[in-house]
Design a protein that fits this description.
Length: 2032
């Protein structure tokens, strides 16, 4: 009792597992009650019992088991997770319930099985029940059979698979147990209800008594088809419908009958192998002379082929023998017997016989000349059986071939065969392209003299009419008279279509004797011989049962729209011709009487007035009431088209176009006007109007018809001008309408006439038309003109060359729909457009050349003779070029040659097969099974070159055929089955390459899976690897579920391995290629009226969509400048969308804010109602859970993108999240937990683009969250941070840096101490990179937050960290040591106590590292103080930025990081993304920054903190001696980087003085060579700050009227001076990245174009200084980066952005021209690949046509010059630099480069000569090497002497200029580095002097840039600066030096003296017209500093010489220098 009390207290789930049966019984009862109470099927309560349900049903106690079964049944019915228990519970029911004696237990077991089926788990249940049939216990077997029977009776054959049941039945009938046999009988009866006679063949071998009993039971069954009575959960709609039918009294029984699925008896049979059973002498006997022997062989074969299903194999020899008997045997009995054998073979093999079908059909058709009924009948059965194995498309060529035969029997039987074949077709399998030639042949036969031929043709046409409907047939029956048309319709009404019945396989065939399902296809009613005369078959009812009802329904819907279609077509295409009286009467209803009277007036003015009234009448009349024919006939009245007044004629032509556009314009109306329009097309004044009218008629009556008429009329006339203009019109029309339906052969004949014309205009127009046709037809078009004269052919080739690489434009016009009834007509034209262009080409029939001698040669035993045969065949193919698919017996022989023992012949055969594919084109597909599959067999060859040849041949075949033919059937799986490692690896590799390119595949692909799985376990490693690579490609088509199911049949050991491989493959399944975009006809509905406007419209699609986007989003309009930059990039993808419907759907908010939803989700997770977000790799249930949670709070469209299998959609989702972040911050915060969870799923994606986008979004979201002062919850952190930390171990540096940055940012929204815990967990990873990064992060946290951050205690944390010192990975050891050193710097020796015991080696490493550490414990206190001051003011959860991220919390640093991201994206050239530029949120909002004077958010720390006070002390002019850098830099050398960061940030300050001081400090660093290197790594940062300051001046300071403009000029001078100094240091200049250079050039050009500077005194000097600076930037920057930036800048400027003027683009292009001139010197160091990619992107946005439309041709010339220069320098090698361009074959750039390369190669010789004439000859031509050395030695001797230095440098400059390839390196190597630098500077000075002489006077308002065409070198006007001493001999006054001194004081940070400022500017003193312009103040300052530096060097290095200074004078004397110093001293003393 005590025990009972004990278990009574337990919870229900524990009771159910209790060892006491009573406890379990009680538990089951309570569980059943609980299960009934739970309302929510997704309640977490269900999950508790997931593992217990099997125990419920398998309880060892019978009483408890009953209750357990009841509880389990309730559970399965109500729980959503019940499906997971199916396999184990069903197995338990079969083995432990069905053997119970209690009937109730058995009933409950059956109910459980049926309930599982109801919840969509039929397959596993059926699998367990079928396993139960093999159980030794007969009770279990009986129960399993009964359950299967019940399931089939209730759920029907759609749910319960019949094939495995039928296979098991024969075995059950053999059981010893009567109960089993009886139950099997009941099951057989139930199965028969569903599949009827299809069950007979599988049961033909059971006991005859049992079969008889079954027959008796089957007869009793009702004839109506059974219906499903129990429904799946997903079939609730069917259940409702069924209940309604039950209530209505089963009135709609007939409809339900059609729903019963058809099971083909063939599928239920086991195949029989017959090839091995053939008599050994079969082939000898069948060739025997005695007909009896031949008969014996055939009878033996007939006995074998009676088997209803045959095993696949090589039947080629058997078919060949039967073909010979049928075609050539003189004994008609044997012919009939051979035909029967062939029919049996075809019926037994079905689709596997397709290979042989095309070989036997011609023979069968030819043999119909026999008139004996039994032969004809046998032939009919044979050809019908063959037809069922293939398609009509494959046999059409053979049928059409015999339709012209003279023998009426052949024609009749061919037509009857077509009639029978049509009955199996559907509208989709009988397309217009196939129907058209067949109808044409049949229409000829309805006029045949033989009545039987006519009747057969009528029947075939009637059947076709029944299949496709009147609408599609009417165009082919236009010329048929009414009597014959009625006969066709009569035949059509009698036809019963087979495809209409679902039981096509069963109902169309009759049973063979003995219940066999072998049948003959039904014949049509017009046959003389009854096709159903079978071999003594029983009843013919099955073949005719129920067709009546179905055929009555069939025509109904088809004829409805068909009738409408016909009526519409008649109205549109042809209408009766009206008499002139009727026309006048109808026209008078529309037009005023005066109009009609004046039409033929002799006064032209009256005729003109009449035309005007005519036009008004047409315009106001409703289009439905417009009598088109009447109106055009009125226009054609005298004078008609002979009108002499051009104004009247123009009006008349315009009215024709108007009528055609507005009314229902028929071809009859068109015929009235076309002749006149063609006649006027060549008229100078009326030609345009005539062509517009022709276009309007083409829209109304279709272009193919109109063009054919117009071209025929033009060439019927003799007027060459008309002919030329008609051809021109046609060329334009084809581009506008597309190429669909055009009669190419007709045009080609006329084009040939035009090419032979004497008038050159006609020939030119013809060639132009050919060029347009070439766009659509490609290279095959040339084959039509190969017989033309060479001169003409070369012109045609030139035109084709122009079109090379271009794609046909999208059609902008099409057949206009004007009636609802006509809406389907254009779709049919689209179908026709799909027809292959190659079908139009003339092909040669080579079948007569494939002689028996050639066949014998190819099969000869002697390899030499076989080779002769192959050579002959190759010659035949070469001569024929294009061939017809009829190649006789060649396929079988060539197949043999692929297995040839001689490998050379195998390779030759492969080459011939490749030739054959090219020659035969798409028709090669009918030979795939015979010749294509054997090519795959060659993959098994051991020689790699043979395999490579096979692969090449295979690819050429697939190119022509597509993949469908190869994947259909079992052939591919049979090849993969062969255990040849070479074959397997090649085949799998090929499949892995091809399958991802397909949108759909054959269902037969699943047959390859067992062999694919065996390859995964192959001995050969390469095979295993290829199999693993192929798995994802198979999975993309078959799906994971199917592949796992297929793996279930493997052995347990194999299964585990395969399933693991499948799980891995699931993560990398490629996305299916997108469906090709189809141009919507609706998008063309509102088409512009003229062609020009259409083109303009299409060209500006991008801009329009951008404008729409801007309107819709007001936020995007705020920053016009930045938006303008991004939008052109975004626009690249927009044109593919036909409308903006999707965008409209996405206009709302993406987040739905639900109060307390986040809190509820946290509660659910804590209560275990949902899965806790914790996994190693995400499983499907986590994804589904997240999807469910998101469904209520995320927009539907965004959710679809987020959970799409394709990663492109994930990028779109992230882009949307980025765009909506600012506008929906509240919504983002409300759903933050879900967003972070979704981002963790993306961490497991392998796509880098997605990962980068995720990190980008995270950086922004945490920035926003910190601004909002939001704190992450623990739930959000725990579900996100661990997965983020996993990514810190990524192999890519870029990703690791971003993750570290995000971790740093997270400290602002989540406590650092809690972060510490998560990072410590990251140390447990096996990834060494992750451990190292985590250790560094821990060190950084400790450095900022001290030891308090260590959790749980410092000691525990540090012991864990110290344990990493012994790690085997160096980076981990170093990181651990650095972290411990950080702790040592904080707490000193106490660290040794905290870290615990270390090994001796580890301790020595730590001590060594501490010694080497720069930081000492003594410095800790000061550091702590500084850090405390930094942390104050931040919230307790926030983190201070640390090393590796932003040390200064300013906007500038955030912007700097943003620009780094932009530069990175530019370098990666991710142009395939939807937006190549960074999103708007990541762009610099410079306007906001400049206007932001708020000191709160971005106030910089005071200068005092960095001890800059010394800058304010009085500074003397530096003496010419070596002075050290500012003490500021020396003092804080330990933290140089942080100081530079700080100073650089001050450059962008809104305070002018602060900025000037910062620039002065940086200038000081840059000017000292030993200190300049400290700026390395900060160049981008400095340049960004600089051009931000330029933007600030441009937008803010210049607009501020209160601000003194002299201050601005001062700042400009400092900025420009600094930049010039920077770009003189080459190493630093080259660090500038592409994105930064682009923005710098943008800013400088805007500054040059600033008209406000012209109003200032020193404004022009600033412009000239900028000019000089730009030259430096162009010359000194990294050439690749600067070229790329200029190309992108030009692209942006041409895209009509807001700030840019035409002048801006012009200056950008001038910079490009400057770079082009430098190309010869830099071509070897630039990254040509990247430049070409930029040009490719430019040409993609600005194709040639778009550039031509621009007013200015400068962009075109710039682009051409750049490419020509590159081609000239690189030659043909330039084509190797296109690797970065995707789809380069489609690139306009590639085609252009090819042309340029060809020309440059041709001209290269001439250019070399011209260079020689100019004096640029090589050294070899001029001097010997000895003489060169002597000359150079003399020059260097001069340079070494003090007196002749200048002369030596000048000579060296001249020498290098004269001999560009001279090598002076050996001479330089001998000297010191200083001397080398001195020579370089000297040469630059000489160059400046030589080039600068004529430039001072050339400056203009455009800042001195020369135009590109000029040959004068490009340089700034202020390149040369006057000497310090004099200007053109005039003494410069002291004011100049005062100005210089003032600038020097400002740069040194001295306070500004008001008196000094009041003095007159120096420039005003130099503004006299006689004095040349002097450089700006900053340049003068640079000169001064340069003088001082040079003199210092001179004093220090007596042996060296004076370095050259930028000056116009030849030398700078020491006297001048002394004089200058004295003057400056005097000025300084006077100021004191």
């Amino acid at each position: 009792m005590a025990d009972e009390c004990e278990w009574m207290k337990l919870p229900i789930d524990q009771k159910c597992e209790h060892k006491v049966w009573k406890a379990r019984l009680n538990g089951y009862e309570e569980a059943a009650k609980l299960f009934q109470k739970i309302q929510d099927e997704k309640s977490p309560e269900w999950s508790k019992y997931l593992g217990l349900i099997k125990k419920f049903v398998t309880d060892s106690n019978a009483v408890a088991q009953l209750k357990g079964l009841e509880a389990a049944l309730v559970y399965i019915e109500n729980a959503h997770v019940a499906g997971k228990t199916t396999g184990e519970v069903a197995s338990g029911v079969v083995n432990k319930v069905f053997n119970q004696p209690k009937a109730r237990a058995k009933e409950l077991g059956m109910e459980i099985c049926l309930m599982y089926i109801e919840i969509e788990k039929a397959e596993p249940v059926q699998e367990e029940l079928l396993k139960g049939l093999d159980n030794k216990n007969p009770k279990i077997v009986v129960a399993c059979i009964e359950t299967i029977r019940k399931a089939l009776g209730e759920f029907g054959s759609k749910i319960v698979q019949l094939k495995p049941i039928v296979k098991a039945l024969p075995k059950l009938f053999e059981s010893r147990e009567k109960a089993v046999r009886d139950e099997a009988k009941l099951l057989a009866v139930e199965v028969y209800k569903w599949i009827r006679d299809a069950l007979r063949p599988p049961l033909q071998n059971i006991n005859s008594v049992q079969l008889k009993e079954l027959e008796e039971e089957w007869v009793k069954l009702p004839t109506t088809a059974p219906r499903q009575t129990r429904f799946l959960r997903s079939q609730q709609d069917l259940k409702t419908k069924f209940e309604q039918h039950q209530a209505a009294g089963d009135d709609e029984e007939g409809e339900e009958e059609a729903e019963a699925p058809v099971v083909d008896a063939y599928d239920l049979l086991e195949p029989v192998e017959i090839l091995s059973k053939l008599p050994k002498d079969f082939y000898e006997k069948i060739e025997a002379k005695k007909w009896q022997e031949r008969k014996e062989a055939l009878e033996a074969l007939e006995g074998l082929v009676k088997n209803p299903k045959l095993e696949s194999g090589d039947y080629a020899d058997v078919v060949r023998a039967l073909k010979k008997v049928i075609g050539k045997d003189s004994n008609v009995l044997l012919v009939a017997l051979g035909a029967k054998c062939l029919a049996g073979l075809a019926s037994g093999l079905r689709k596997k016989f397709q290979t042989y079908a095309t070989h036997v059909v011609p023979t069968l058709l030819e043999k119909f000349k026999e008139k004996k009924p039994q032969v004809v009948q046998a032939l009919q059965e044979a050809i019908d059986a063959v037809f069922l194995t293939t398609t009509l498309q494959n046999l059409s060529e053979d049928v059409l071939g015999v339709m012209e035969n003279k023998n009426p029997s052949i024609k009749q039987q061919a037509s009857l065969f077509l009639a029978r074949s049509f009955r199996y077709c559907t509208p989709s399998t009988l397309p217009k392209s196939l129907l058209k030639p067949l109808c044409a042949a049949l229409l000829k036969q309805i006029n045949d003299s033989a009545s039987e031929v006519r009747d057969a043709a009528f029947e075939a046409l009637g059947t076709a009419l029944k299949v496709v409907g009147e609408r599609l047939m009417n165009p082919f029956l236009v010329d048929v008279d009414k009597l014959k048309l009625d006969k066709i319709k009569e035949c059509s009404s009698k036809v019963e279509l087979i495809h209409g019945k679902k039981s096509s396989a069963g109902a169309s065939k009759t049973a063979k004797p003995g219940g066999q399902g072998k049948v003959a296809p039904s014949s049509s009613s017009g046959d003389k011989v009854d096709a159903h005369t079978t071999k003594s078959g029983p009843s013919k009812k099955p073949s005719t049962s129920k067709p009546g009802a179905q055929s009555k329904k069939g025509p109904g819907p088809a004829s409805g729209p068909g009738g409408k279609g016909k009526k519409a077509t008649e109205i549109r295409e042809v209408e009766p011709e009206l008499s002139i009286e009727v026309c006048e009467e109808r026209a008078s209803a529309v037009l005023p009487a005066s109009c009609l009277q004046q039409l033929d007036s002799s006064n032209w003015k009256e005729r003109l007035a009449s035309m005007e009234e005519f036009q008004k009448g047409v315009e106001v009349t409703d289009k439905r009431e417009l009598p088109c024919q009447a109106l055009v006939r009125m226009l054609a009245k005298k004078p008609g088209w002979k009108e002499t007044n051009f104004q009247v004629m123009q009006m008349k032509l315009y009215i024709v176009a108007l009528i055609a556009q507005k009314g229902s314009f028929s071809r009859t109306s068109a015929e009235v006007v076309l002749d006149g329009l063609v006649d006027k097309s060549g008229d100078i004044k009326c030609g345009m109007k005539a062509k517009e009218a022709l276009t309007a008629i083409a829209e109304a009556c279709s272009l193919p018809w109109t063009a054919e008429q117009v071209v025929a009329m033009a060439f019927a006339q003799k007027n060459p001008k008309n002919q030329a203009e008609v051809l021109n019109w046609l060329a334009t029309a084809i581009k506008e309408f597309g190429f669909a339906g055009l009669n190419v052969k007709a045009f080609i004949s006329n084009v040939k006439i035009a090419l032979a014309a004497t008038n050159p205009a006609v020939r030119t127009s013809a060639i132009t038309l050919l060029g347009v046709m070439y766009l659509y037809m490609g290279a095959p078009l040339r084959m039509f003109f190969e017989d033309e004269k060479p001169a003409l052919l070369s012109q045609i080739d030139a035109e084709f060359e122009k079109m090379q690489g271009q794609t046909p434009p999208a059609p902008i016009r099409r057949l206009v729909k004007r009636d609802a009834a006509e809406e389907e007509v254009p779709e049919e034209q689209d179908e026709e457009e799909n027809g292959h262009i190659q079908d139009l080409l003339p092909r040669t029939d080579i079948s007569d050349k494939i002689t028996s001698e050639l066949i014998e040669k190819l099969g000869d035993k002697n390899w030499k003779i076989r080779k002769e045969g192959l050579d002959e065949l190759s010659t035949i193919l070469n001569e024929a070029k294009l061939i017809q698919p009829n190649i006789g017996e060649l396929p079988g022989v060539l197949k043999g040659r692929l297995n040839d023992s001689n490998k050379i012949l195998v390779q030759q055969t492969l080459t011939i097969l490749q030739q054959m594919a090219t020659a035969m084109g798409p028709h090669i597909k009918q030979h795939v099974k015979v010749l294509g599959i054997p090519i795959i067999t060659v993959f098994g060859d051991s020689k790699s070159n043979v395999r490579a040849a096979a692969l090449s041949t295979l690819n050429s075949w697939v190119e022509k055929t597509g993949m469908k033919e190869w994947l259909d059937g079992e052939d591919l799986s049979e090849e993969l089955k062969k255990e040849n490692p070479f074959l397997r690896q090649e085949l799998l590799g090929w499949l892995a390459e091809k399958l991802p390119t397909l949108r759909s595949t054959s269902p037969d692909l699943i047959l390859c899976l067992p062999h694919l799985y065996s390859c995964l376990e192959d001995r050969n490693g390469d095979v295993r690897k290829k199999a693993q690579d192929a798995l994802p490609t198979f999975m993309m088509h078959l799906g994971y579920e199917k592949m796992v199911r297929a793996a279930g049949k493997l052995k347990p050991t194999s299964k585990d391995q395969v399933v693991a491989a499948l799980e891995k493959a699931q993560a990398i399944v490629p996305a299916k290629p997108a469906a090709p975009a189809k141009t919507s006809s609706k998008s063309n509905a509102t088409r512009p009226s003229s062609t020009a406007s259409v083109r303009a419209h299409s060209a500006t699609t991008n801009d329009d969509t951008d404008a729409i986007a801007l309107k819709n989003d007001p936020k995007k309009n705020k920053t016009a400048g930045s938006t303008a930059k991004v939008k052109p990039g975004i626009g690249k993808k927009v044109p593919s969308k036909p409308n903006l419907k999707d965008d409209d759907d996405k206009s709302g908010p993406i987040f739905i804010i639900i109060p307390n939803a986040k809190e509820q989700r946290v509660k659910d997770e804590r209560a275990l109602k949902v899965l806790k977000w914790n996994f190693t790799t995400p499983r499907d249930e986590y994804t589904e859970q997240l999807k469910t949670q998101m469904s209520s709070c995320v927009a539907k469209w965004l959710q679809d993108e987020m959970f799409h299998p394709d990663f492109h959609h994930h990028i779109k989702a992230l882009t949307a999240l980025l765009e909506h972040l600012e506008s929906e911050t509240e919504g983002t915060v409300a759903c933050l937990d879900l967003i972070l969870k979704w981002l963790t799923l993306r961490f497991f994606d392998t796509n880098t683009s997605v990962l980068m986008k995720v990190l980008e979004y995270l950086k922004l979201i945490f920035t926003v969250l910190s601004k909002e002062d939001y704190h992450l919850t623990d739930n959000e952190a725990s579900s996100f941070i661990p997965y983020l930390i996993n990514k810190v171990g990524e192999p890519k540096d870029l990703i690791r840096k971003d993750v570290r940055c995000i971790l740093n940012m997270m400290c602002k929204v989540y406590p650092a101490s809690k972060m510490f815990n998560f990072i410590m967990e990251g140390l447990k990873s096996k990834n060494s990179k992750q451990r190292a990064e985590c250790l560094e992060e821990l060190g950084a946290l400790i450095e900022v937050y001290d030891l308090n951050v260590c959790q749980p205690t410092p000691a525990k944390a540090l012991k864990e960290i110290a344990s990493q010192i012994g790690d085997r990975d160096t980076s981990v050891r170093n990181a651990a040591l650095n972290t411990v050193v950080t702790v040592y710097n904080i707490c000193g020796d106490q660290v040794f106590k905290l870290i615990g015991n270390l090994s001796e080696k580890e301790m020595s490493m730590l001590e060594e590292r501490i010694k080497r550490s720069a930081k000492k414990p003594s410095a800790v206190s000061t550091k702590q103080e500084e850090k405390t001051s930094r942390i104050q003011g931040l919230n307790p959860n926030a983190a201070v930025p640390r090393k590796g991220c932003d040390e200064v919390p300013s906007k500038l640093k955030i912007m700097y990081r943003t620009y780094r991201i932009q530069a990175r994206s530019n370098n990666s050239h991710s142009t395939s993304e939807s937006a190549p530029m960074i999103p708007r949120e990541f762009q610099l909002d410079l306007d906001e920054i400049e206007n932001d004077n708020n000191a709160g958010g971005c106030e910089l720390p005071d200068l005092v903190q960095h001890k800059l006070d010394e800058l304010y002390e009085p500074v003397c002019i530096p003496e010419p001696k070596n002075r050290s850098v500012s003490p500021h830099f020396d003092e804080i050398h330990g933290s140089t980087d942080s100081t530079i960061n700080f100073v650089v940030s001050q450059v962008a300050s809104s305070d002018i003085n602060t900025s000037i001081q910062a620039l002065a400090q940086i200038d000081e660093v840059l000017r000292q060579e030993d200190k300049a290197d400290t700026m390395s790594g900060h160049i981008d940062q400095f340049l960004i700050a600089t051009f931000m300051q330029l933007r600030l001046i441009y937008n803010t300071h210049m607009a501020d009227e209160k601000l003194n403009k002299s201050e601005i000029l001062k700042l400009y001078s400092c900025i420009i001076g600094n930049m010039i100094t920077l770009f003189q240091v080459e190493t630093l200049a080259k660090e500038a990245s592409m994105g930064v250079l682009k923005d710098l050039m943008h800013g400088l050009i805007l500054l040059m174009l600033d008209s406000r500077l012209d109003d200032l005194d020193e404004g022009p000097q600033v412009i000239r200084s900028v000019n000089l600076l730009m030259v430096k930037v162009l010359e000194k920057s990294d050439p690749t980066n600067i070229l790329s930036s200029l190309i992108v800048l030009l692209q942006d400027s041409l895209l009509a952005t807001t700030n840019n003027t035409p002048k801006f683009s012009e200056l950008v292009m001038k910079c490009l021209w400057r770079m082009i001139r430098l190309l010869p010197n830099i071509v070897n160091i630039i990254n040509v690949d990247r430049i070409l990619l930029d040009i490719h992107n430019f040409m993609r946005i600005f194709p040639r046509e778009r550039l031509k439309q621009m007013k200015c041709d400068l962009p075109t010339r710039t682009q051409k010059t750049l490419l020509h220069t590159l081609c000239k320098l690189l030659g043909p090698k330039i084509m190797d630099h296109l690797v970065l361009i995707e789809n380069k074959n489609e690139s306009e750039l590639e085609a252009y480069l090819r042309r340029v390369t060809k020309h440059s190669m041709a001209l290269s010789g001439g250019k070399i000569d011209s260079e020689t004439e100019k004096g640029g000859s090589t050294i070899e031509d001029k001097e010997s090497k000895a003489k060169i050395s002597e000359t150079l030695a003399e020059i260097f001797k001069k340079i070494g002497s003090k007196e002749n230095t200048r002369e030596g440098l000048a000579e060296l400059y001249e020498y290098r200029k004269k001999y560009s390839d001279a090598d002076i390196e050996p001479f330089l190597r001998k000297s010191s580095q200083f001397f080398q630098n001195y020579i370089e500077r000297g040469l630059r000075l000489v160059e400046n002097e030589r080039e600068g002489k004529g430039r001072i006077s050339s400056s203009s308002s455009s800042a001195g840039f020369s135009s590109p065409p000029d040959e004068s070198p490009y340089v700034a006007s202020s390149t040369s600066i006057p000497s310090a001493g004099s200007t053109n001999g005039e003494e410069v006054g002291p004011a100049v030096y005062l100005e210089r001194l003032k600038i020097l004081r400002q740069r040194c940070g001295l306070e500004n003296n008001s008196k000094l400022e009041e003095r007159q500017p120096a420039t005003s003193l130099l503004s006299k017209p006689t004095v040349p312009t002097v450089a700006s103040s900053s340049e003068l300052l640079h000169n001064k500093l340069a003088h001082l530096r040079d003199s210092r060097e001179y004093n220090q290095e007596p042996e060296s010489h004076h370095p050259p200074v930028q000056t116009n004078s030849n030398t700078t004397s020491a006297a001048n220098l002394d004089d200058l110093k004295k003057r400056l001293e005097r000025i300084k003393s006077s100021r004191k």
